[in-house]
Specification:
The chain has a domain at 11-71 and 137-231: 3-Layer(aba) Sandwich (Rossmann fold), CATH 3.40.50.2020. The longest helix is centred in the middle third of the chain and has 22 residues, at 107-128. It has helices at 23-34, 51-62, 97-103, 107-128, 153-164, 179-186, 217-231; strands spanning 43-46, 66-68, 71-76, 79-88, 93-95, 141-145, 169-178, 191-198. The strands form 2 sheets. Strands 2-1-6-7-8 form a 5-stranded parallel sheet, sandwiched between helices. A 3-stranded antiparallel sheet has the order 3-4-5. The chain is globular. It has 7 helices and 8 strands, in the order αβαββββααβαβαβα. The protein is of the alpha/beta class.
């Protein structure tokens, strides 16, 4: 007898690529998965930049509150695409100690990376939350949203941060994710909704999308501002 699924997904999307037209389409599919949670009026927390358009579609479809929760990857000195940790909006730091050892990073290099990323988080928070009060999460049910889960280090930092801030229940909702990263994330305690679960040695978030481009900070901030002005939320 096979074990019961440890997350909620879309069986028809498993192991497939190119399943979403774009991030908005991915948000529409996630909204369907999350519909049963909407009656509790959870707070959606979008991780910029790519999580913003996904979350906007979910919030618009389900009529839920939406805020930005800035979390930034701590990038390798020689490769900005690869990260060995992340810093969240409240200062929470999550490190991949095994990867740090594998890369031979010194304690000074790690400390410098954390400091630089803290500054990046402050700058991005000023951009995405300039006109908003500080996040008040005590007793809240929250849904953390990004456009995909690759290594999962950014989402791990986000889950720890909202827990530190008093969230009562934590849900993670992503359009696509690798099964190993989803399993790792489960150890941090959230309930997970992932529409497109993929397996194997090779994984890229972009492969789930037929149209893919990076979302700039300015684009994401403008999209969020327009959503707030349109909905009054």
């Amino acid at each position: 007898m096979s074990a019961a699924p440890q997350w909620i997904d879309c069986p028809d999307l498993r192991r497939r690529i190119g399943v979403f037209a774009d991030r908005a389409d991915a948000g529409a599919r996630l909204a369907g998965l999350l519909e049963g949670e909407s009656s509790g009026q959870p707070l959606l927390l979008a991780i910029p930049s790519g999580g913003i358009p996904v979350a906007i579609r979910i919030a618009g479809t389900l009529g839920l509150r939406l805020e930005a929760a800035v979390v930034s990857k701590i990038a390798l000195p020689a490769n900005s695409e690869a990260g060995y940790g992340a810093v969240a909006f409240d200062g929470t730091v999550e490190l991949n100690e095994a990867f740090i050892r594998e890369c031979g990073l010194s304690a000074d290099t790690v400390a410098r990376g954390i400091a630089q990323t803290r500054e990046k988080v402050r700058r991005r928070t000023a951009l995405f939350r300039a006109d908003r009060p500080p996040l008040a999460l005590t007793g809240e049910s929250v849904v953390l949203i990004d456009d995909g889960l690759a290594s999962g280090i950014t989402m791990k930092a986000a889950v720890k941060a909202v827990g530190n801030q008093g969230a009562q229940r934590v849900i993670v909702a992503v359009p696509t994710g690798h099964d190993r990263s989803l399993l790792d994330l489960l150890a941090y305690g959230p309930q997970i909704f992932c529409a497109n679960v993929r397996f194997g040695w090779s994984f890229a978030v972009a492969d789930a999308y037929r149209q893919w481009s990076d979302v700039t900070e300015q684009e994401a901030a403008a999209q969020l501002k327009a959503f707030r002005e349109k909905t009054g939320r």
